[in-house]
Specification:
This is DUF3891 domain-containing protein. The protein is α+β, with helices and mostly antiparallel strands and 229 residues long. It has one domain. The chain has a six-stranded mixed beta sheet. It is globular, with a radius of gyration of 19 Å.
């Protein structure tokens, strides 16, 4: 669950809804920049489902072994960012699972290429970050008050060819989110389901009960190109 506080309320977003939004971003990405298109469906599935209740990688692997590789890299990155030590999990994610999947893909004639895997993992990272940005920043939030993770832009995005080495940055204009350089093929709208749970009720009744009784509403956002300083 993604949660932030606003006006005596907890704004709560399901992990899977966040993941689906990331998947929508991936589907609209500047696809001409993708070096190998034959795994596109697998990549989109992995990005859209990477946060499905912190889904077991076995479930993703059953649909797309390549997608499980991407999610494995993503989870390892989250462990590194958190600063928490989990050597057993890291070993499982990086060595045992990845080695086995690489062997299976090679034996089936679908070997992976490091450049392809690296590119797709950067795509997953960006789409995940952009979805989190929207979840953790209320539309219209001034740049000076937004979540600190992205004040200097989205990390590693300067590696996409179309950016010319520039990091993608974002800034709100009301309910429109401007991005520069722009990573999508066109302007478009997205919706994100949220629940605005009253703090008072969460304190008196418990967060789970108050969340259950709070109706779901939708945030509608337009993504567009903009020249940002």
């Amino acid at each position: 669950m993604i949660c932030r506080e606003q006006d005596e309320k907890f704004v709560m977003i399901k992990q899977h809804d966040h993941g689906l939004l990331a998947g929508e971003f991936a589907a609209r990405f500047r696809i001409e920049q993708v070096p190998r298109k034959r795994r596109l469906d697998e990549v989109l599935y992995a990005i859209g489902n990477h946060d499905w209740g912190w889904i077991d990688l076995d479930e993703i692997e059953a649909v797309t072994p390549y997608g499980a590789l991407l999610c494995s890299l993503h989870f390892e990155r989250l462990i590194e960012i958190s600063g928490e030590s989990s050597p057993e999990l890291t070993l499982y994610l990086q060595e045992e699972r990845r080695s086995r999947i690489h062997r299976e893909l090679e034996s089936s004639g679908a070997a992976t290429f490091e450049a392809e895997l690296y590119y797709d993992s950067r795509l997953l990272q960006f789409c995940d970050d952009l979805s989190l940005y929207i979840g953790l920043n209320e539309p219209g939030t001034p740049k000076s008050q937004e979540h600190p993770w992205w004040k200097n832009g989205f990390s590693s995005t300067g590696e996409f060819d179309f950016t010319g080495g520039r990091v993608i940055t974002a800034e709100w204009r009301g309910t429109t989110l401007l991005l520069d350089p722009y990573p999508f093929t066109e302007s478009f709208e997205v919706t994100l389901p949220v629940r605005r749970v009253p703090r008072s009720g969460a304190v008196s009744r418990g967060l789970a009960a108050e969340y259950s009784d709070t109706p779901e509403t939708a945030i509608t956002i337009t993504l567009a190109e903009g020249e940002l300083k």
